[in-house]
Design goal:
alpha+beta; Serine Threonine Protein Phosphatase 5, Tetratricopeptide repeat; 3 domains; seven-stranded mixed β-sheet; two-stranded parallel ribbon; 15 helices; 13% strand
Length: 430
């Protein structure tokens, strides 16, 4: 899988307030609610605790396929509005205004991604009792990040930020949330680790890049109990937290730089992207998904030999890295090595058929050949996987017209218009 992107949070969840977490239920309960569901039908996302049993001891046929965690990072180094006033220290006061940080610059030390500055320490010390028992501290930390008298952290699709920038902006993707949560938890004496979560992959497209999006969250130890801190509701994650894998800080930093690299690649800044992929590999050279992403980027730039080396390295690190296998199959086909390509295609075809953009690619080719029923089948699967991509609906209209189903075409045109209205993209239908 290629790397580079961030989140697994619902894109419709931007800009909405989250209510503070309730107290955890008695020991043995599976779920402790974090931020409670919004009232009055408001749309937004929630964070939650998942209690874990404690121990008393101790990516498709476009130009490239890319993988990352969270959501794809937005424009690197884009400056926002002028900073507002700094946060106060009165916990009874409302949240400090969001501040858009300066353009991103590489930290001298990767550990700075988890650093708290003086303003953050004042803010959290006014809301967290360092002498409280650990479970109470954990509740106070989540309230300080999500609550109405806290940061009111909200999801941002392009928000791939350090802990400090996440604090200033009051927003970010799942990786940004995790960096901030880990930094604050550790500052208040809790053991906190990053986790890669085994979710079903999500897909998106940014320019000519198809991205497979994975998820990251946080595990915290509070006494003899363990909790998962996750900004993504269970229904959105579609996989049990029990499948989460604890990773090192270095691996989390690798995800951070990888995500930024994918963002820059999507913007056409290939040199910046390569530098970010290299920084990601400097943090963890065993990250197969970064080698796969770097290989895809080199292939896009026309460096086929370099791409081959990176993709082979990805597979040496993880022979099951499907994005690397998929990209290598395309590279073999591009260079006329058809037998090698065919062997790899057999291995990755199931993976590709879970990619809605690959299904759309097949459907468009079938439509061009007049194979309308086959195209309809592939589009049905694509929309079942990703139902917010206008191009799938546009092609579905054309296929319905090809099949002579006027009413069906009109129905899909109405769905397309509704989708465009929700996303603010009013465009003529085919």
């Amino acid at each position: 899988m290629s790397s580079g992107l961030p989140s697994s949070l619902s894109p419709s969840a931007t800009g909405h307030r989250n209510r503070p977490p309730a107290r955890c239920t008695p020991a043995g309960a599976r779920i402790c609610r974090g931020a409670q569901p919004l009232r009055d039908g408001a749309v937004g996302w929630t964070a939650f605790f998942r209690r874990r049993p404690g121990r008393r001891h101790g990516w498709a046929r476009l130009s490239a396929l890319i993988r990352g965690v969270g959501c794809i990072a937005g424009a690197l180094g884009a400056a926002g509005p002028a900073p507002g006033e700094q946060a106060g220290t009165d916990a009874s006061a409302g949240p400090p205004p969001a501040v858009h940080a300066a353009p991103f610059a590489f930290p001298a030390d990767d550990r700075e991604l988890l650093a708290l500055d003086d303003e953050m320490q004042r803010f959290f010390s006014a809301r967290i009792d360092a002498r409280a028992i650990k479970s109470a501290r954990l509740n106070q930390i989540i309230t300080a990040i999500l609550g109405e008298q806290g940061l009111q952290f909200v999801y941002e699709k392009g928000g791939n930020y350090s802990a400090r920038e996440t604090y200033r902006r009051r927003r970010g993707n799942c990786l940004s949330f995790s960096l901030l949560a880990v930094a604050v938890a550790r500052a208040y004496g809790l053991t906190a680790r990053f986790c890669e979560v085994n979710t079903y992959p999500r897909w998106d497209r940014f320019g000519n890049l198809v991205t497979e999006i994975r998820h990251l969250n946080v595990r915290v130890w509070a006494g003899v109990e363990q909790f998962e801190l996750d900004p993504l509701p269970t229904a959105e994650r579609q996989a049990p937290v029990a499948t989460a894998k604890v990773i090192s800080d270095a691996r989390a930093f690798t995800h951070f730089y990888n995500n930024l690299g994918v963002a820059r690649l999507a913007e056409g800044a290939a040199a910046d992207a390569q530098a970010l992929f290299d920084r990601a590999l400097a943090a963890d050279s065993t990250a197969a998904f970064v080698w796969a992403n770097k290989g895809s980027a080199l292939r896009l730039a026309g460096d086929l030999a370099g791409a081959h080396d990176c993709l082979e390295r990805a597979l040496r690190e993880d022979s099951t890295e499907l994005a690397a296998l998929s990209s290598l199959a395309d590279l073999y086909a591009q260079t006329g090595q058809l037998k090698q390509a065919a062997k790899l295609v057999k291995k990755v075809e199931g993976y590709r058929l879970r990619n809605p953009y690959y299904l759309s690619f097949l459907a468009r080719a079938e439509y061009t050949r007049g194979q309308y029923p086959e195209a309809e089948g592939h589009l049905r699967r694509a929309i079942a996987i990703k139902d917010d991509e206008p191009e799938f609906y546009e092609l579905r209209i054309l296929v319905a017209q090809g099949l002579g189903r006027t009413a069906d075409a009109q129905r899909w045109a109405a769905k397309l218009q509704a989708l465009q209205a929700r996303s603010g993209q009013a465009q003529p239908t085919p």
